Amino acid sequence: MGEKIKEEVLSIEMPPDSIDDEVNLEDIEGEESIEQYIKEEDPLEEPLRNNVAIKGNSTADRDVYSNLDLSKLKREDRRCALIVILCNLKGEIKNSFLAQATGFTVKSVRRLRHRIERDQEDPFDMIPKQRTDSEAIRTVRDRHLVRQVEALIRQNRGISIRQIAHKIAGTDKSPSLATITRLVHEDLRYRSYSSRRGQFLSPRMMEKRVEVGTKLLNILKQPKESPMIWFFSDEKVFCQQQKHNRKNNWWLVRSPFEVARVKEVKFPAHVMVFGVVSSQGYVMPPYFFEDGLKLNADVYIEVLRTHVLPWIR
Question: Which of the two ends of the chain, N or C, has the fewest CB atoms closer than 10 A to its terminal CB?
Fold first, then answer.
């Protein structure tokens, strides 16, 4: 494609009559003398100036050009026109005029001229569209690689991105770890999550929960006595030792010796608290069990009889 465009550009030549000889303006004195010189040199210049450039009498002619849709021109066509103008005028033209004539920004024109004049690049190699970074990525992150990575993930959901890159490194393509990471996150839209914990439920346990839950809903919908007040109770052990999570608690330091230590003891101080809440929003004052007390059914019943029942009444 580049050779074909190069041949087309070389075939474009400026007519010899269109290049004026150098004129010494010091030999021409006065505005009228300059006008007379233009008329003598080119008799077609006067009607052109009067109709289009200077006088601007024909508004309809200007509307014809303003209504033209230049968006139909490809960027390669406009870049070719810019290079043709630069080659024919030997670069003696301002960047602002080139930008206005070709539709590029002044920054783009300046960058292209630097590549030709300073970097000595071949201007004919600049006409075809240059591949962008996102398109260059697709030479590695193509559909085949995406399907290959997705197949490895479906075989083992616990596989790491580093292991995926290590397995694909032995094939015809050897993408980097960063490429595999972007492929997993952007193309497949996968995210890494830690495994969840939950209560083991056998089929018998699930049936029992459904049965008990159904009975509780029936009692709530149709109580034996109306209005009926419901009480919810629970106990909680509060430990004095600081809570620490090695996965989430991180420190940004220069040395591991600068990381603060979390002090731990084998038998930390703790206290058990018992609380009751009613369905109408009433809250019983918390009850603190004695230190070292072993909680069993007898102790629990005693607390209900001596503390919870008087509060309810």
Answer: C
* pLDDT tens digits for range 224-241: 777 788 888 998 988 888
Tokens of residue 35, six digits:
């006008």
208-267 pLDDT, tens per residue? 999 999 998 888 888 777 778 888 899 898 888 887 787 777 888 888 888 888 888 888
Q: State whether the Cα torsion 253-254-257-258 is positive or negative.
A: negative
Write out the DSSP string of the chain: -HHHHHHHHHT----GGGSPPP--GGGS-SHHHHHHHHHHH-TTHHHHIIIIISS---HHHHHHHHT--GGGS-HHHHHHHHHHHHHHTTT-S-HHHHHHHHS--HHHHHHHHHHHHTS---GGGSSSPPPPHHHHHTTTS-HHHHHHHHHHHHH-TT--HHHHHHHHTTSS----HHHHHHIIIIIS-----PPP------HHHHHHHHHHHHHHHHHHHS-SSSS---EEEEEEEEE-SPP--TTT-----SSGGGSPP----SS--EEEEEEEEETTS-BPPPEEPPTTPPP-HHHHHHHIIIIIHHHH-
Q: What is the pLDDT of residues 96-131, one digit of tens each?
A: 888 888 888 888 888 888 888 887 888 777 777 665
* Residue corresponding to tokens 């030999």: 27
Cβ-count burial of 127 within 10 angstroms (0-12 exposed, 13-18 middle, 19+ buried)?
buried
CA distances from 30 to 34, 38, 48, 161 (A): 7, 13, 22, 80
Q: How far apart are CA 174 and CA 167, in angstroms?
A: 9
The predicted model scores a pTM of: 0.37
